[in-house]
Design goal:
With 82 residues, this protein is an all-alpha fold. Helices cover 70% and strands 0% of the residues. The protein has five helices and no strands.
């Protein structure tokens, strides 16, 4: 069936597309070409959804931690290229 989808001989239903995306571990948006952000796989999207359910102070704490790791990574890359 996937071969038919690839050849344009059939179009998957939304439910079928969701199952394929789940099996591949990617978001439905990525599967259908809505984004080219491979990093936004299904696991990442699920975590973002869960993060949105947290109270504001806990969300901010996690954002601060993420920002710290990202800043440190960028700093290391910058100094590695000098």
């Amino acid at each position: 069936m996937i071969g038919k989808y690839e050849r344009g001989e059939a179009i998957p239903s939304v439910d079928a597309a969701k199952k394929i995306a789940d099996a591949l571990g990617v978001s439905l948006d990525y599967l259908v070409g809505g984004t080219n952000q491979v990093s936004f796989d299904k696991r990442t999207v699920d975590r973002i959804k869960d993060l949105e359910q947290l109270e504001e102070s806990k969300k901010q704490t996690l954002y601060d931690l993420i920002d710290t790791y990202i800043r440190d990574c960028k700093t290391r890359k910058t100094f590695a290229n000098l």
